[in-house]
Amino acid sequence: RAGGTLHRGARASHCRGLSLRSTGSRRAGSVRTCPLPLAVFAAMAAARLHACLVLQPRARTLRAFSTSVSPATRSPRPSPSTTERTSRYERPLRRKALPPRTEKMAVDQDWPSVYPVAAPFKPSAVPLPVRMGYPVKRGVPMAKEGNLELLKIPNFLHLTPVAIKKHCEALKDFCTEWPAALDSDEKCRKHFPIEIDTAAYVSAGPSIRNPKARVVTLRVKLSSLNLDDHAKKKLIKLVGDRYCKSTDVLTIKTDRCPLKRQNYDYAMYLLTVLYHESWKTEEWEKKKTEADMEEYVWKDSSSEKNILETLLQIKAAEKNLELSKEELLGTKEVEEYRKSVVSLKNEGDNENTLSQYKESVKRLLNLT
Asked: What phi and psi, each to the nearest 5 degrees, are found at residue 230?
């Protein structure tokens, strides 16, 4: 009982002390209180906290957080005095920026070894004062150092004349000598009448492919082909406007296939088919009349018959029957008349053809 009495007494005194302090705080202006000493109050609060922690150890467990740094992980700041005492062998070495390669290049530098293949522009390897870019405020364009405009465009620094000469020397062992008989362009065109034109494009873009590179153009003169009059006229009729009459050149352009080699094979196939088709003679071609001809033909025409009858009547009136029909048609006057009539029929009536026809008729009839 004594323990219980003492405990109750301490609790009562503690409650009285709290109530007195709280009452004193609320009624400081009206009631005079006697506050407990600070040491007694601190001891009572510590005892109460200890009792609460013992009764509820898990609910009120405190977590400890440490912000201290171990001496091993702490990086000491070097002081000026420590830096001065550090040996020069222990200090970190700083690399010096090397001079650009252009300053060390010799005058007779082997350029193909600098740019052996296609590569972007390198300002440290090109000993030229290259500038590119938009000039700001009427100034000069940007220099080559750090210039992105020079990186955007393709360059041909790997295809200098010296590099091309070296490439040709390397490929010379794999090539045959040029034929000695083909020493002129006329001989080349005679033995190789077919001319092939292709184009390769170089562009700055995400793809090196160009759709125009597949186009193949074939040119050949009809006079170099083995064609008779019927085959030549039929081939001209088949090709249409691909034949140029003034130059006698047939042009075939192919671009239907996706590859250049396919278009080349297709162009050669078209030329072969046109050649063999022009030699064929259909049944309906045998029934062609003078009006169906592609151009005016003088032989066995009505103009030839009329001029022959006229000349025979003139010679009969003059009582000169020694000349035959072949001799009359072979005279100079009849030949000029034939040319003027053919040009008038094929080219149409204009000032030049009418003037030629007029003069030839005068000479033929002795009216000059």
From this structure: -65, -45
Query: Could you tell me which of 233, 228, 222 has the C-alpha nearest to residue 271?
Result: 222
Both tokens assigned to 351: 């000032």
Query: Residues 305-330, buried b or exposed e (16+ Cβ, 10 A)?
Result: eebeeebeeeeeeeeeeeeeeeebbe
Angle at 165 between CA 159 and CA 170, to 5 degrees: 105
With cut-offs at 50, 70 and 90, classify the pLDDT of residue 64.
Answer: very low
Q: Quick one: tokens of 244?
A: 């140029």
Which bin fits 44, alpha (ψ -120 to 50), beta or left (φ > 0)?
A: alpha
Between β-strands 243-244 and 216-221, what pairing exists: parallel, antiparallel or unpaired? unpaired
pTM: 0.52
pLDDT, tens digit, 9 for 90 and up, residues 171-199: 999 999 889 999 999 999 999 999 999 99
Percent of the chain scored above 90 by pLDDT?
32
**Count of positions (residues) in the chain:** 368
Residue type (1 letter), 55 = L
Cβ burial 246-274 (10 Å sphere, 16+ → b, else e) = eeeebbbebeeeeebeebbebbbeebeeb
Burial of 121 (0-12, 13-18, 19+ CB in 10 A): buried
Question: What mean pLDDT do residues 273-288 have?
Answer: 90
